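Exercise 7.
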Amino acid sequence: MNHHQMLRSVSRTFALSIEQLPRILRETVTIAYLMFRVSDSIEDHESLDPAHKAALLRLWAMVLRGEYSVEDFTDKFLNLDSRNPEIYVAQNSGIIINYLKKLPPEPEAILVEHVNKTSLGMARWQEHGPYVSDEPEMDDYMHQVAGRVGYLLTDVFSWYSPAIRNLKTQLMPLGREFGLALQTVNIIRGIKKDYERGWVFVPASFYEKMGLTRTGLFEPGNIEKALKVIDMLADKAEKHLQSGLKYITMLPRNQHRVRLFCTWPLMFAVKTLAISRKNSNVLLSEAKISRRQVKNIILISKCFAWSNIWLASYYKSLSRI
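Solution. The predicted structure, written as tokens, is:
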């Protein structure tokens, strides 16, 4: 299985976005995504204890820095089920490293820097534990797993395009916010699944404001109060999403493929957020957009991505249920 096949096995939706990029960016972002996915596969694995996860994440960071053998790293996954696509990716980290080394030196260094920092940040959070006390703590977690992705992409785009490079100072903080936007929506969408594996990324300050406890947030008798907590998260996500829209509209219009790559995940998140508001399924199971909605967003945004006015209008229409 090559790196493009690996990408499709772990995320068809992101694969669609990545495959729109110009060739060198497509290669770079595919490898970056798989590198982040190795970190994610460790963080999300249900049978590994937090100390073991933290140790593996630090070993992965050492592999990236050339301080630990990738063969010794992948040996630590031999007893895990390779039928799980994410575990398969971790078990084949050596293939990813080989593709990484085929990149030009500058994007290779960018990927190593940011995935290293993300992995170390994830390790710290595994040791911190599954509790988030307030919004700054939530933002810190999301920065490690998603804000740094925004930094990486902005660095890669700036390497690729002189026009984007000229905007880098303004784009960098917006890139972080873009990452936080997508992660906040992911937290809302996966809130029940995260709880079932022991994690609650909702700040305690949010649910305590409604007189709820960590477990009470998910009790059927508290749905009305819990949905108000979801509203708080949704309002937070909306602020970050607005920055994501600004990020895209700042990108040069002649970089249509780059804009399109950014547009699809933003619009998917906007629609997901819209259907999550006042929706008890968020707390009972999951609320997600349909495949038909995904296809419609892709088709429509292909026409709109070059126009800032049309993008803003489409964003607004998707934010309504």
